[in-house]
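USER: Please consider what follows.
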Amino acid sequence: MTDPTPDPPAFHIAPPAWLGEGAPAAVLAALPGARVVGGAVRDLLAGRAVQDVDVAVALPPEQAAARLREAGLKVFETGLAHGTVTAVLLHQPVEVTSLRRDLLTDGRHAEVAWSTDWREDAARRDFTMNALSMDATGQVWDYFGGRADLAAGRVRFVGDPATRMAEDYLRVLRFFRFQARYGQGAPDPAALAAIRAAVPGLARLSAERVWMELKRLLQAPDPVPAVALMRDTGVLAAALPEAAADEAALRRLPADAGPLARLAALLHPDTDAAALARRLRFSAQEDTVLRRLLDPALRPEAGLDGAALRRWLAEAPAGLETDLANMAEAADGQDRAALRARIAATPRPVFPLQGRDALAAGIPPGPAVGQALGRVRQWWLDGGCVAGVAECRAQLP
């Protein structure tokens, strides 16, 4: 492997509190010599919140699972063929993976053998900042210069970028996700050259994995530079052919916009939301949300007065009020910061009548109940959604 750091590639840090308590501590105690690997070490060094803790061990998975069970942890064989089990203590999961080396790769999956060589296992990682490992004392191993790359905001592949992407083309999309979250300054030119050549390999990825990476990218604080880089390298056209010609609408979204709103702003206005949802295998909820975000009729005008705002809130899909305002701003460029503040401060109006009110007024059960309530609800909307129960009941026939 090229460009290793000089031996010994290790340094010591003060171990974080989470390393000495709960499931991570129990796993490391049950597996002497095991190390925390990947994202937890990376984010610890970057001064970011650590979400999930993954552990690697120089034991075959069956032996690791047996030792974890002997230590009193619950063990689930979540990925035994790939060397991974999940240990759980007090509802806290920790993924434990045996050290591996690749025997065969096909551009997405690998056939592996178990290893006892930590450097060999680190060489399988995608980026240098993800190849770090740390033991229970705070000793950190850095075989490929990940600490320096992390500090410099340099997303760099371990070894030859073209080789690493040919092993798993999902790494093409992961590069942009990590560039959005950790990158600073100009991206690695060797990586970009290899990415341009690897674009045809994206066709081998499953739709679910493509959407997973796009969604994570769009959750970054500012995904626009990474998305623009995807466009420049040809990756955006391959992964999301429905994208608009530029990032203008995406740039106009405020920082608190959700990933689906960002996706919607990135799409061409004529995008068939249902077809896109089918292609990327959206969940039913994601499908519904995207359709609503792409519907111009649901977006609020910039200068709504009080009555119009209440009417809009009463009709807008619940939970999407802010994102719909964001989409309106992205579409026409009019600042809606004040409107978003008013939306947040205005309780959602709720029509005060129910079916029992119509029955109590003498309306016979059946379609007449819905028709009567519909007429009164329209009267309530026309009046700015302020009429109470008694006033609405008085409007029933």
Observations:
- The chain has a mean pLDDT of 93.
- The chain has 21 helices and ten strands.
